[in-house]
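G.,

No rush on this.
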Amino acid sequence: MNAPAPEAAALLARLDDLGMRPYTEIGVFGARHAVEASRWMQGAKPGGVSTREVLADGGDGPLPVRVYHPEPGTELPLTVWLHGGGWVAGSVALADRPCRAIAAASRTVVASVEYRRAPETPFPGPLDDAVAATRWLATHAHTLGADGSRVAVGGDSAGATLATAAARRLRGARWLRRQVLVYPPLTPPDPDAHPSWKQFGAGHLLTREDMTWFWHHYLGCDPHAAIPPPDAAPLTAPGHAGVAPVSIAVAGCDPLRDEGVAYAVRLGETRVPVSLREWPDMIHGFLGMGGELAATAELVAWIADELSREET
């Protein structure tokens, strides 16, 4: 069985010493505060990237978007990024340093979307925002210094779920070239179908109880009461033909690992081009732990490589 790398195990122990409490205990506001406070793990802010703020169309009104350009004056491909946080927490501010790093490494214009969050706006609101914002950003790419004919959509954790569901809704859009999914939750926790929940569902930062709590807020109901809609839980979708090529990163010590692997297999069966990379000794959330884990830089480099990949 996989085990966390020594530096990841040390970080988990440190977080435990700091008295991290389950999201199920601290509630929505507590969860939002705790997630924002985790920025101390991200390390120094990458330089060399220009930023600007714009308003993009959302599912029910304008949404703030922070745009990162690594080479102002040069038209570059566009990457729409959707932050993690269980659809309940997280923000453009939380994703700032990872997005700077991705923009610099990939030489793409990264547009980070402040989509609406649950429980105030449950499914399909956050997904409607992701779809509408991606369309708007592609249409207005030239005003951002980007190429609207070369667009990728990506995200980490819950943002990755929104990214792949948005790509499903946007299938057929010739400008959408790729989806990049970093440790995505793709269906409510099911230890029988996905044994990584039994192996890592406690003691590895993200717990089964907390993930069930996030799903409950996102769906607005008990996530196990019925099969969720395919656009909410993409692993339940009956087909994937026609979606943009997919790149999936999973952490080996993450309870979500098996969902990401199963999704890659499902996509391959539908002949969707798919690239899967596993970091066997990493934990959930390590994209946002660059100040503590050396593997974060490797993940950013992989994202950059995948964003430049061209399917033949």
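When you get to it, here's the other one too:
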Amino acid sequence: MDRRMRRTRTQLLRALISLLETKPLNDITVTELTRIADINRATFYAHYKDVYELFDELKTECCIMLRELIVRHAEEIQHGDTAGITREIFEYFDDNEQMFTLLTYNGDTTLYGDIIITLQNALAETVLPVKCGEHFSNRRTVNRDDHQEMMLFVYQFDFIVGGLVSLLQRWFTNGRKESVETMAALADNYVQRIGPEAFERSMSLIEADGAKVVARTV
């Protein structure tokens, strides 16, 4: 995206946020939006088909930013240090309180689900391969099913992400009464509880379940 396109998009997004403070999304017209953004209608339609598509861009921007946070902290997460990423996620929501409030109260029901998918995909691409590689290279036994272990890593990451986003959503919808520092510390504490020991216990459960299946088929 060139500089002119970025400037146009930024102006339109700012104008949309300004209008959403005073009226619901379905009452906003392209005419008033382009007037506030100081952009003509033809330019608007060159980028978006309607106001709703521009509204979706706000959510997209949020997901892109959260993905960038994961990428930036990937090496720390690979080494079990999640304090930095949890703090930055809560800071991002706190700093962009206006945008998230407008998204939430204008009929968007998929925001937090999209955030979960974004974080899951980012972790799967940047952290999961490293964690799996370390595990398989350092393990002492060789009688486990690699596919099962891979899936267990995925389950564990998905559980962590789902819990983190749910905690974030609850904090935000309750008015952010606790400080960013407190919530980040709480989140990091919960994440740290789901480490290697939890993985080993979970693997034992998987193996026990597999043994039962084999016993039933014999």
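The chain has a mean pLDDT of 84. The CA atoms of residues 101 and 173 lie 9 Å apart.

Enjoy the weekend,
O.
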